[in-house]
Amino acid sequence: MSLLFSTLRPRPLCRAPLTSISTPECRECKFCKSGKTNLCGKIRATQGKGVMPDGTSRFKARGKDLLHFMGTSTFSQYTVVADISVVAVTPKIPTDRSCLLGCGITTGYGAAVVTAKVEEGSNVAIFGAGCVGLSVIQGAVKNKAGKIIAVDVNDGKEAWARKFGATHFVNPTKLNGKTIQEELIEMTDGGCDYTFDCTGNVGVMRAALEACHKGWGESIVIGVAAAGQEISTRRKFPIPPLQYIFPCTHWNQHSNSSPVVYGRVAPSVVSRAVPNCPAWLMTT
């Protein structure tokens, strides 16, 4: 994929390889300066409408304008992005790995290491063993978690989950009538210390929350649910997911939004969260 810029202000010409970021940081707005979130407000309004910062689209097909997707439109061969939506990376890293820095790896790894701060010996369950879920597993391994349980309806994910460090794998469709909550509570003697939703499915979000240990269990919701869907639990408080989740919601006795490393691929931030990240990616 080739990148073209739509600059918000003049920038020096960059000849380094780039990776795109769907949740960038301008480091100038109120949100960026707060140090509490990476939900930059500079281009969020226009990005959410599928257009560039000036309100226009750069894509056309059959004479009609097409909307941009997540500010990056990376499924196209050529794309146009705002200047803050890309970051330079070392030429030494293959593009099929550097592309994961924009979301998948930093989101999952950061959820375990930065948001949850998983402690040594903790019991952890990860719902969804895709790129984000596998990165959560890596973060849990780095923090020396005890049981690292990958949960997925696709048995083909088990080998990958174990390769990345999962100690257990559970397919919730093969529990002979037991719920995944019951299975995890039984496996961990009362519930998980940390659960992570990496699916965007509100039913799975509920299961992840209810699989937490009573009193101290925490559930980190990473997946983004479809528009109009709500999370509900036995406590009967419906929550519109997009209001709380982007990029990560940290649940325990109360719900509050907490930032993960998602989108934070500015060198100063990634170097703190994932030391030597490009080198680590090339050897993973």
From TrEMBL:
Presence of the UniProt keyword NAD in the record: yes
GO MF entries: S-(hydroxymethyl)glutathione dehydrogenase [NAD(P)+] activity; zinc ion binding
Key words, A-Z: Metal-binding, NAD, Zinc
Keyword set includes Mitochondrion: no
Cofactors named for this entry: Zn(2+)
GO cellular component: cytosol
Domain Alcohol dehydrogenase-like C-terminal: 132-234
Record-linked Pfam families: ADH_zinc_N
Lineage: superkingdom: Eukaryota
GO biological process terms, semicolon-separated: formaldehyde catabolic process
UniProt cross-references to Gene3D superfamilies, sorted A to Z: Medium-chain alcohol dehydrogenases, catalytic domain, NAD(P)-binding Rossmann-like Domain
InterPro entries cross-referenced by the UniProt entry: ADH-like_C, GroES-like_sf, NAD(P)-bd_dom_sf
Name used for this protein in its record: Unnamed protein product
Organism field: Aspergillus oryzae (Yellow koji mold)
Lineage: Eukaryota, Fungi, Dikarya, Ascomycota, Pezizomycotina
